[in-house]
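Reviewers of the previous submission asked for a worked example of the structure-prediction workflow described in the proposal, so we include one complete record here. The input consisted solely of the amino acid sequence. No template or homolog information was supplied to the procedure at any stage.
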Amino acid sequence: MGASGTATLDFGVFPGGYDTSVAVTGQTGIAAGSLVEAWIRPVGTADHTADEHMLEPIKVIAGNIVAGTGFTIYGFNTHPVPAPVDRVPDAWQQRHTSATAVQWTQMSPRQDLPPGPIVTEPVIPKIYGLFTVAWVWN
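From that input alone, the workflow returned the following structure tokens.
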């Protein structure tokens, strides 16, 4: 016979973190081969509304089963966002002499970048606060 319940993922106070986990204990009937599932449950917490639970790109995985004891729920942000990077675009460096490129790369960040698009790279932002997670195992 399985069980179900809820837990709270705590990413910490602002600015928060990239990932977190919570141990679910007291599951005396769980076996090493049990299947465990977890997901974000849209129930408000002190930090976030139910709507924010639905919109935040948190991936939730249940694992690390300990027979007769419980399991761990892991949560982490999966949404990379483009963010400006303080460096000269490689294409710009290739079009100019190496001496000129060295001058640009030795400048402090954001000082008169060469013409053209700002270089962006994916950045994983931090998540803060408490999120409700539902779980079930068989």
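The chain has two domains: 3-80+124-137, 81-122. We consider this example representative of the routine output the project will generate in years two and three.
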